[in-house]
Batch of 4 targets.
Target 1
Amino acid sequence: MISALPALNEADASQGRAGVARLAFERSGPRTVVRTALAHSPLRLLTPRNHGHAAWAYTSSFGGGLVDGDHLRLDVDVAEGATALLATQGSNRVYRSPKGCRSDLHARVGPDALFAWVPDPTVCFTGARYAQTLDMSLAAGASLVLADVVTAGRSARGERWAFLHYASRLRVAREGRALLDEKWVLDPAQGALPARLGRFDALATVLLVGPALASAREALAARVAGLPVKPRAQEILSASPLGEDGLLLRVAAVSLETLLSTTRDWLSFLPGLLGDDPWARRV
């Protein structure tokens, strides 16, 4: 059961904040280590130990979410042969923001490296304006796991697709050549969101690119591509090949619980690549 999120004191939203952070991962013998972890408020970085060969990092923000005028930027470097996981300590909460707020993630993944970006869902409250950019640059032989989830908001409080604007830009390039460049926009100015999205309360994109994910892509493509769309289904799934070594998965679900069950199942191969389970050992 997803519990209702706490309300934000309006005084906390009186002034926006700018936060910049930098993460760098490198290979050290059989393991990957965090070489650099620098963050300026309101961003925080946590780098817990784990039992595998990969290095993990989690992001969080002071105040528990984004307020009006916030602009966060995170730059990530994954050196040659390294394996890194980046996730969040909790949901990305976006509070009422008439002027808007945004976050940008720029990642460079070196040769034969693996980078997994698997954050918790984005939850936009009533009156929120939010934009994000996910910009991934892959070297030869690099692999990428990416998940991006957005929800209807605090449905338990009657706030369902009640935000003012949501935009997500996803760009992935291999050796400077674009593999994917897309932008999602959800804006009531283009039509009432509850009516347009119907019974669905959560949307997700999952992207798998690179040689380290070949077997996972093959298995998932076979499972998802042939599924029929049934009337009043709890979720609608799709799978599309992306270039020679990529797979783009989508899901729209009637509840966040249903969607997360599906995306976690899709990513069930990830603990084997990391040497430990990031969902079993939260910060």
Target 2
Amino acid sequence: MTSIQAETVLLFGEVLADIFDDRKVFGGAPFNVARHLQAFGLHPVLITRIGNDELRRELLAVIKDAGMDDVGIQLDVSHPTGQVMVHMEGREHRFEILPEQAYDYIHAGITHMIALAVRPQLIYFGTLAQRSAKSAQALGALIRSSNAPRLLDINLRKPWYDAPTIERSLRRANLLKINLEEMEILTSLFRLSSKNPIQNADALIRCFGLDSVLVTCGERGAWQLDNEGKIESVEGSASSQPLVDTVGAGDGFAAVYILGILRGWPAMLTLPRANIFAAALCEIRGAIPDSPDFYEPFIKDWKI
């Protein structure tokens, strides 16, 4: 694929390492989505901040091996590369998202310059990195630097969100991606009157001037409502393979959704493709495939 075809997506927010007892896995929604976009032939640019530590060196090596652009990755000499401590509690995992990480200190001025330099076709952001005033300011600088469509992948993580941050994020977005659990949280926070998720999605569209709301429903598929009241939906995909885990499935869905937007696919095509890809990710361990061969059937079938 040529550089002319490689649409640029700016992805703002956290890049971090999940620290298990026996291993560490790099992740964070912006990082996972960027990895998939790179594999699909787009030009993802992460805007984040990492520490001057061993995790930084390992992370940059992963980014280089994936062929990704590191121009938007800032260096912080005072704070560590983001970490999430993963605690085993019986058969369940408990995730402890640490405070005061490098991604909490993304620099607004540098972010502004990167946005002007790369001229993105789409901006992707979430809420976790906005828990700090510094990074929230940097996101504001990014939004003001570009007229590109803005996709909010809300990714609410307790206790790192509040109503003002969510409201500000919704006002900055054109498109919203959310799951059913997060829809319930927004329903409560904004005192939406209906028990019908579609009616509440419509209320969010009207209140915040959104173009559309995409709601993912796990194994039950997904649906999208646009500002003209049109609904598109996809049922869950049955698989002949056993489910391994659901880690990163939503990020995979988001990546194909972005691909569909930039390639001009209709929603009736984008949603099934995103759903199939997310389901395939549930058949492997972790959020990112070990081999680029994983992407080949999708690239061939979708002619990308």
Target 3
Amino acid sequence: MSEFSKLARQMWHQIEPVHASLYFSPEAFDEAARLGYDVESRWPSYFAWRTAPLGAAGPKLVTGTYYSFSPAAVAEHVPGIWATARPEAVLQARSRAVDRTLRTLLGDKVATPELAEAAVLAVRAAESVEVVHRPLAAANLDLPWPEEPHLALWQACTVLREHRGDGHLAALATAGLDGCEALVSFAAIGAAPVSNFAGRGWSDEEWAAARDRLAVRGLVDAEGSATPAGRALRDQVERITDELAAGPWRTLGTESAQRLALLNRPLLGAVFESGMLPMVSTLGIGSVRAPE
């Protein structure tokens, strides 16, 4: 791995939880309920919050940009979410949700010079991203930057997170893994229990068929665990993902990226200490080793 590929992975660990706070915070669920979304499940608001920068996207576009969600799971929510609230209203509520969430997490620290400096650095990295074949990163980058530093920091983290995610989908496609196979192969290396992927909407039959396809390729064994070839393929996916995510960190530079990580630490710590995030992530943070 190159220096900046390694740095990209390290910074992903810094920004992913900040971005993800939107999908789990009580304040965000409150804003979603005010819009009219059913918050008994997190998925209606998740699809609304994450998709709104694309506009009133249809199920094909959302399936394509989300990749690992089953078309049936997407169709359950899209385009219905736009009948509840238009994308413009969702984006306004998203901003309120992030504002309330970060103020709850940080208290008086939301207005510190250190957080303002973190926002400047994160925005600089986000504005440098390559947007070709990066639809979710590009859509978020098209949004105006908020004046408040804590909101700008969250938006920059979101651009950088989606930039990495868009690249990850390219890596999965290069490896010849479709949406369900991507999850099966990820569970096979122990990234998270199979049950944790249920929210992506694949049926037991679809999951079993994907596992059978991977077995034919020699990527999983009879128990569904990754073979050496399966682990090597997942290492390839992670390596390509890191390489494709390196651009903004190469632009920002190692010293500034490390400074951003230091300045972001109070917010990152507050997110973890809140207990809002799941104990086991389906992203593999903390359970998937970096490729050598």
Target 4
Amino acid sequence: MSSASLIRNPFRVTGRQVLPGFALSLGISLLFISLILLLPLTGLLVQTSGMSWAEYWSVITDTRVLASYKVTLLMALGASLANGVIGLLLAWVLVRYSFPGKRLVDALVDLPFALPTAVAGITLATLFASEGWYGAWLAKIGIEVAYNPIGILVAMLFTSLPFVVRNVQPVMEDLNSGDEEAALSLGATDWTVFRRVVFPSIWPALVIGIALSFIRSLGEFGAIIFIAGNMPYISEVTSLMIYIRLQEFDYAAASAIASVILLASLTLLFLVNIWQARYLKRLKGIA
């Protein structure tokens, strides 16, 4: 084999590919998906299948459960929107500026992925308690974070921030600086350049990051229960209601409540994927 053909395809040796073929790769992928993803979902459906529709509806529309839906949705929405602003700003700083400790800040963005959520919850509860480092200062102005609904918001902010940063950051790195320079040379202000040149290119990634942040917040448990206070009708999230039903050995009710969160998450993921596919298709059509 010539060296030129080897350079063109470094994974091909003596006419055969080193990497597995399509059939083997697809088989391994489907097996993994079936064992890790589909099998647990099947178990969830089996648990709920033993309930009648009336029983299922009674469980998921219980007043305490409905209150947990409201708390979870409102706090998740607030956290994802706040992360949209904070994550965009953080991605902008990491991409556009060089400063001492930049690599450390970039690594810290992924800390919520590496840190166990229970550890994060205990740490946040300690920091934001009335005697904590942050809580003591906030208490002076009448703001109580720990053991209140706002604690849920803080925990969701912490655990879901990387989704926004890591979606926006690579898109921002690939932007053509020539377009911005051209706009500046034509007399545009910095804000106009961002609004008319930069933002139209990054907003799809920002929307997807916010959506993923919202979905992540819907199912958060470990970081929340230590800081929320877990007061019925006030600071109980849906994941805690699932845990409570499991402690009561009511597996069918726990599965029913979990199915609501699962359906909401899958629906949002499905809609985001459809929107992304259509957006990319429209971009290809324009190009």
